[in-house]
Amino acid sequence: MTPRSHEVSPGRSWPLGVTPDGDGANVAVWAPEAERVELCLFDESGHETRIVLPYNDGGIWHARVRGIGRGTRYGIRAAGPPSHRPTSFNEHKLLIDPYARALDAHARWNARMDGVAVTPVGHDTTRARDDRDSADVVPKGIVLTDAPGPDPAANRPHHATADLVIYEAHLKGLSAAHPDVPEELRGTYSGAAHPAVVDHLVSLGVNAVEFLPLQAFFDDRAVVERGLTNYWGYQPIAWHAPEPRYAFSDADAELRNLVHRLHEAGIEVFVDVVYNHNGEGGEGGATLSLRGLHETGYFRMHDGVHVDDTGTGNTIAAERPMVLRLILDSMRHWATRYGIDGFRFDLAAAVGRRDDGFDPASAFFQAVRQDPTLAGLRLIAEPWDLGPGGYQLGAFGHPWSEWNDRFRDDVRRAWRGDPLAFALLGKRMLGSADTFDHGRRAATASVNFLTAHDGFTLADIVSFAHKHNEANREHGRDGHNENFSDDLGAEGATDDTEILGARARRVRAMLATLLTAQGVPMLLAGDELGNSQQGNNNAYAQDNPTGWVDWSAHDELLGFVRHAVAARHRLPLLRQETFLHGRTRDDGRRDVEWLRPDGDPARSADWEDEGFRTVTVVLRGAADDPRGTCLAGAVAIVISTGGDADVHLPEPDSGRAWRVEFDSARPDTFAVGAEATTHDPSAAPYPAMAQSVVLLSCG
Q1: Tally of domains in the chain
Q2: Helix (H) or strand (E) holding 192
């Protein structure tokens, strides 16, 4: 019997979740095949009070319950008809409300979370429903009310997309080892908001931070049984709730403050979201939330078995109305309560997938495009999944941008010296028009990156020819096998000054390539400091110094990156929205020219020559864009992936000498604050050093 203090009345079937309203709260849970749904309240001692939700509207169980307010801890239980699926409607399993806006603890696998009990019988096993109660090992939802303090959505920086320089970072790893952050705050939302971290980002010149998943996630069985943790967070379990393990005391308040502080510093905040699967896994996985409420409704199934287009055991059925509603409600919540400026979608092809494959006009893309709350927010796709036809780079329409893995791989191959990769480098420098120039898309559709959380750091690309993932305890089977990396003469750490010098030079040249290419550049946190993961290219379970940013800075590299980012911000010709195709402008000049070291135009035969390793690309405002033709002057980018070369530059458009913005082989000469240097091409060719990028401007 329901206590009088929790008197029940009909309430409404919307909004979903637990919504406080004075002396009580409205409760609404979608579980269309359940026969009974209970709201379970927990007091400070852990005592549970169960309240049946007696009203049903189109599969949504609902009621208004008195005595619920801010801070109330709760869960859901669902019971239903006998089923051939032992994981369905098991009232012994406490479930996390899909709309829970906060959790009281982080989720870590325990055997009592499993919906299936596997019993050995001779040489075989039997599978039956596991009726062990899970309430004491499952995190409880926490009821929230309106948030106090500054509204982080009220001071969004609103940068132009072309002006963005993105910094991908792990929330904990960003401050976990920072010596100037108080020890008790390291690895928390408050640690990331500390002035020592924010000031570094500002001085670096980045104006957007893209955090790895912040939505509450699960330490799944696979990592727990190996004695590890799910460090990266790609096993979501509550899409509305911020991850509690990153909180010093209050995840909700501290995340709001972090976004507000970054906005004050002119930095946008993006969040990596995982709407393609959840942490409950596939057959025989944990029963924690969606599985216990409507397994066949939330997940894509085929002949009663989970479809696994994500490599995690399950795939969210984003094409279904109520599942799509949950995803959109989650996005709106993060945009309004936390002021998030954009989302990077993990395995984004999966959320656009229908039964017959990926569809760029699917319900998800249409719904996001028309949503007024989400209008103007950044949408970035990881444009692939593991399903049939899952690689969809270039297929996402406006206003989406996409992680461009071809940029990553082709630039790495070019600097490693792979045969004919230099010609591919030319394509990537112009925003990968071969992939993105269609459907009136802009060059900013390409998010260019050399490194990301998944793979080698930049220091490791030039220090390891092979992955070294032994610490993941998967016998080296995990992670990419082809990294297009090069140890430059010694695998891993070395005292050889010649090798160390070659590594440092290539790192600067690769970063200069990234920061002078058309498109939106993304840096990996720590690359500007020479951060290494000791050859681990899949540090998803390394919640330790391997996965954290090492703040013992390489001052020379850090100074160069600051200077190169500043040059990008200063020169709009490096960040145009219109693709450049070498068309003739009204002034008779081409918007892009490719020149050989002798100053003559590069020809097709040059690009097909394996010895062709030095080129100058001259950029002007796009001929097809009024905004481009208004851009004065030109920039010249000298790229030398081979040896030293005397480069004959064209006469500058302005009639004045070329100004050297930076030379990656001479970082001391062109450090921040150094006096401007000019070069007169009529006097002598420019002496480009091996493995270098030189940026010059005129006008």
Answers
A1: 2
A2: helix 189-192
CATH number at residue 610: 2.60.40.1180
State yes or no: pLDDT of 524 exceeds 70.
Answer: yes
Final residue of a structural domain among 142, 174, 194:
142
Distances (CA, A) of 171 to 218, 248, 585: 16, 13, 46
**Consecutive H or E run containing 350:** helix 348-351
CA distance 607 to 614: 10
**Residue 144 backbone dihedrals phi, psi, to 5 degrees:** -115, 155
Take residue 366 and report the two structure tokens written for it: 């249409």
Expressed in angstroms, the distance from the first to the final Cα of the chain is: 81
pLDDT value at residue 491:
98
Task: Flag whether pLDDT at 258 surpasses 80.
Answer: yes
User: How do residues 97-142 score in pLDDT, each as one tens digit?
Assistant: 999 999 999 999 999 999 888 776 666 667 788 999 999 999 999 9
**Contact 374/364 with Cβ under 8 angstroms?**
no
Domain contains 340: no
Element (H, E) at 36: strand 36-42
- Answer yes or no: is 666 within a domain: yes
Check if the beta carbon of residue 273 is closer than 8 Å to that of residue 212: no
Report if residue 263 sits inside a domain.
no
> Contact at 8 Å (CB) between 431 and 575?
no
As given in the structure block, the two tokens for residue 329 are 């409600």
DSSP state letters, 312-326? SS--B-TTSHHHHHH
Report the predicted TM-score, pTM, of the whole model to 2 decimal places. 0.97
Question: Would you name the residues annotated as active-site residues?
Answer: 346, 382
Is-cis flag, bond preceding 179, omega within 30? no
| Coil, helix or strand at residue 627 | helix
Q: Is pLDDT larger for residue 604 or for residue 122?
A: 604
Q: Which two tokens stand for residue 334?
A: 């993060």
Q: How confident is the model at residue 672 (pLDDT cuts 50, 70, 90)?
A: very low
Asked if 233 and 214 touch (Cβ cutoff 8 Å), the reply is yes
Whether 410 is in a domain gets the answer no
Average pLDDT, the chain: 95
Domain that holds residue 583: 579-698
Burial class (CB in 10 A: 0-12, 13-18, 19+), 4: exposed
CATH code where residue 59 lies? 2.60.40.10
Pick from 142, 172, 200: which residue ends a domain?
A: 142
Residue 121, judged by CB atoms within 10 A of its CB (0-12, 13-18, 19+), counts as exposed
CB 384 within 8 A of CB 391: yes
Amino acid, single-letter form, for residue 515:
L
CA-to-CA distance for 317 and 294, rounded, in angstroms?
12
